[in-house]
Amino acid sequence: MPETFLDSTELVLNMGPQHPSTHGVLRVIVKLDGEKVTGTECVIGYLHRGVEKIGENRTYAMFNPYVDRMDYVAAVSNGLGYCLAVEQLLKVEAPARAQVVRVILTELNRIASHLLWLGTHALDIGALTPLFYCMREREDIMMIFEKYCGARLTTHAFRIGGLQYETYQGFEQECLEFCDKMLPRVDEYEELLTGNRIWQQRLVNVGVLSAADCKAYGVTGPMLRAAGEKWDLRKAQPYSGYETYDFEIPTRTNADSFDRYMVRIEEMRQSVRIIQQGVGRLEAGPVMAKVPKVIKPPVGEAYVSIEAPKGELGYYIVSDGSTQPYRVRVRPPSFVNLQSLDKMARGGLVADLVAVIGTIDIVLGEVDR
Amino acid sequence: MRDFLRKIFLVDLLEGLWVTLRAQHPKNIVTEQYPAARPKVAERYRGAPRLNINPENGETLCIACDLCALACPENLIVVGWERNAETKRKELTTFTYDTSRCMFCGLCEDACPVDALELTQDFELASYSREGQIFDRQILEEGIHPTPYKH
Q1: What tens digit of pLDDT does each residue of A105-145 get?
Q2: Strands (DSSP E) along B63-124, which ranges?
Q3: Which CATH number applies to B49-142: 3.30.70.3270, 3.40.50.800, 3.40.50.2300, 3.40.50.150?
Q4: Is A224 buried (19+), middle (13-18) or exposed (0-12) by CB count in 10 A?
Q5: Which of A206, A281, B115, B148 keeps 20 to 30 A from B27, CA to CA?
Q6: Beta-carbon separation of B15 and A136 below 8 A
Q7: Which B residues 52-91 touch A at CB under 8 Å?
Q8: What is residue A73's DSSP assignment?
Q9: Which ipTM score applies to this complex?
């Protein structure tokens, strides 16, 4: 083939690990034919800290703060999953009051996680404004966390067997105030984005992943629900008393990025509903079950999965009867969902790749662990 | 027809702009002017560690039981003690707390049986050196003194 000035060959580019829209240190090797993406490959591991291995060298109680650092955007959900898994090993159950507080805090965290997702996703697409508004509301949630457990992001809010802290004075009041404020704010985001023609052109029919593909890749969470599958672990295998709460699982059918946005927006509204119900159910009572000081679960294994904001978050813990877990395996939603990147991005444009990475809602701390 | 007019007159974009415009109202500004105005953090905030002393006689509350060091996931607390020959009790000699490795999980605070070790509301922990991050007994008892911001 003669060499010409305008020779068209495939181009291999590295996107990341310092690219701002890869949400951390994700490196995507992109094969390009002009503007068209003909293949992608994710290179992960830049944030690998060996959390699972650390777990084998810590006692059960000591490992609890580490799980917050996997999906640091939804630290409370991580803590809940881990505590539930160890509680299943120990065959104890958190008291009723503790369970209600857990539900309230995890739902607050779900809203916080979705807010951060919405803000950064919009930022990637080019809409700068929603980020500031999302951060404003997220700040309110962070304040509730700070007042409740003393930390804002990596909260360490739950302990094995219940809660360490009793709720603070005015907790219910602040949660309800936040709920009342949140609903009009969600409408505000919709006003900014949903009808916006640029937003629609960038997202509609971008990154389509059908329900069958979702199942093949093991994709869970809002991505699966945007494909029309009514699958939510809070309903499918309820934990912490979720079966008694009245809420809906929002689903859409187009399975594109825009539908995932709509699903997450609707999930925020549903979370507000759960929080409002939860606050009404707070009754006086103990917050900690009878758990021995030195936690030594009997020999056995437990797998508990919960519906984290990003999808199914599972903890598989093997106990050899000592004070330290024999093996802790985490099934992180981000890691599994990230697999579908190639399927969604192939055939699209480079600009769509940014939208596709954003729509998966990954946190690299969780992908790499 | 209606959709067409909406499109021509950029209604969808103007709706969004109206939201932005509303947020410009001085009442809706939420920015904190951090170094100039310091936020008041919550009572339970887990910040710089402190070793409490008895305000009546100035003696440390710590009984050198070593429970905090055992509870710490990062093994960053070192408690030094010696036995008093007369009273046969453990007495605290040194206490080292390495904040550079601390993740402020609060497990040491929970473990303390006499509420001697406490994570306080001080959150300005920056230091010019790694050694400065390692708190000895004196810093822990007196507290950190961050340089105040001047205009």
Answers
A1: 999 999 999 999 998 998 888 888 888 888 888 988 998 99
A2: 77-83, 90-98, 117-119
A3: 3.30.70.3270
A4: buried
A5: B148
A6: no
A7: 71-73
A8: G
A9: 0.82
